[in-house]
Amino acid sequence: MSTPSTAAAETAVRNPWLAVTAVGLATFSVVTTEMLPVGLLTPIADTLDTSTGTAGLMISLPALLAALFAPLVVIASGGMDRRRILCGLLGLLVIANIATALAPSMGWMLAARILVGFCMGGIWAIAGGLASRLVPGHAIGLATSIIFGGVAAASVLGVPLGALIGDFAGWRLAFGSMALLSGLVLAVHLAVIPSLPVASSATVRQFDEQLRNRKLQVGLILTLLLVAGHFMVFTFVRPLLLSVSGFDAQWIGALLFAYGIAGIAGNFLAGIGAARRTALNLTAIALGLLLTPVLFLTVGDSHIGGGVVLLAWGLAYGGVSVGLMTWMMKAAPGAVEIATALYVGVFNIGIALGSWAGGKVVDGLGLTANLWLAGGFAAVALLLTFGIGLAEHRTDATGRRAGSTTG
């Protein structure tokens, strides 16, 4: 199992919150790169002469490959210093963004997005479990929220600003700007991240053992349901807001910015509550993601209705990453890096499945049918989280009765 050495732990204590912030910037960079096509889907499809559904492959392809790369990076990295791995992956992210900005065809674009998928899988797998190595035990919850706050911040600043740059200066400049930002984040990592050696590397056998962990299995199923259902709709949020809610194109950047602000709020609310009431936290998130497509179908056909639903959507989905990651850490406290790699893998399978299935449904049946399908995924997740919460409540009640009898 990958464990930090004493020297690494001592080094990490020197500037823990600066290091945590740097890791949060890494997740911000890679998720912004991952999600940037969402706000630019229509102009990219027009420039590269492809359909909206096919353009959705820019989301689903790297996500699917990230699912494969996440465990492979953890296994292949062996005892290599995790700082070196993060810096190397950030360097590749710079190259991937430059290649995307220069893409002359859809084939070139997808090749660049394959490299993005490699960076996504590696950065998420390594960064997701670093909180316990950088801060004291009592601060792990907050540190995890900051690291995964990079995901929410990507929605607030990355995707909307990318959409704004794309609207005013073209989508190629948006990806060029992302290459520059990724380079700056690399420089920050080189300056503040401490050495993060490991005592031993993860093995295939240890991954197999964790795949048999029942509580971890539940978390992975919830991850697939919640993430796939979300990305069925979110990949096509631009055409949804344009055609269903009737917004003009110039409002998309501002709307996504508001969505992201709600997402950051959801991230930290979930981070505060997830450590104590993890199942209840995930139940609330699943309920919010079920209500989102239902409300779009009922009141989303106006500017006010669509805008309000988008904010509620951001609040609900903002808590997904930290809520599910908290579940994973509780399910496998002695194998956090392995649990994180599996979580990242399934998370990105969910992105790929949702984007791909959503593209097929949008091209074949339209946006309304896609909303119904997404609602179905969220409904199954809600039933599962409700069942988990009920089982935990019964277990707690039995324990209290046993303690009272003993007393």
Outline the fold blueprint:
Layout: H1 6-12, H2 16-47, H3 52-55, H4 57-76, H5 82-101, H6 106-127, H7 131-134, H8 140-169, H9 171-192, H10 204-211, H11 214-234, H12 237-243, H13 252-274, H14 278-299, H15 303-318, H16 320-331, H17 336-364, H18 367-406
Description:
This protein is 83% helix and 0% strand. The chain has 407 residues and is mainly alpha-helical. The chain has a single domain, classed as Growth Hormone, Chain: A (Up-down Bundle). The longest helix is centred in the last third of the chain and has 40 residues, at 367-406. Its main location: membrane.
What structural class results from the helix and strand content?
Answer: mainly alpha
Count of runs of 4 or more consecutive helical residues: 18
Taken together, the total number of domains comes to 1
CATH topology-level name = Growth Hormone, Chain: A
In the predicted model, the low-confidence regions spanning at least 5 consecutive residues are: 1-13
Beta-strand level of the residues, as a percent range?
under 5%
| DSSP strand tally | 0
Average pLDDT figure: 80
Q: What top-tier CATH class fits best?
A: Mainly Alpha
* Whole-angstrom Rg: 21 Å
Order of helices and strands: HHHHHHHHHHHHHHHHHH
**Span between N and C termini?**
41 Å
In CATH, the homologous superfamily goes by the name MFS general substrate transporter like domains
Helical coverage, percent range: over 70%
CATH architecture: Up-down Bundle
The profile of the biggest β sheet is:
none
Shape: globular
